[in-house]
């Protein structure tokens, strides 16, 4: 799994639908998830620490979890099927742990309010992410090619103690 952070909300130029953009820790891969207007507002309000006079839906949910001593320990976006992402939220109370099915947009809005990490399965990132820093990716690939060209079989025989492995 790869921990991702919410980079922000964008607007799809063709469909005019909001997109929540998740980025990995290196900032080199981004995962765009198309969401609804209401969820986009909920995510934006959490990102900007906006307070409303009365609790909105995700604020209400956060307040309920806190009052009932339930901890949202993680959000996992685990699959992508027919252009639809699927997520689970892990809730814990003491020794009890429950996984709850959720739309990624709702899970993200709640995770932001509760300072909970957002994780995405590597397969989903591999299938749906977009490169953000093409130049760095190309540099890394070139360095790896050079590494492969210069490696010798004897390099694999050295143990951590400096001696040679026997076999």
TrEMBL record:
Span of domain BFN: 1-132
Report a single Gene Ontology molecular function: nuclease activity
- List where the protein spans the membrane: none
Report which superkingdom the organism of origin falls in. Bacteria
Record's protein name: BFN domain-containing protein
* Naturally occurring in which organism (per UniProt): Acaryochloris thomasi RCC1774
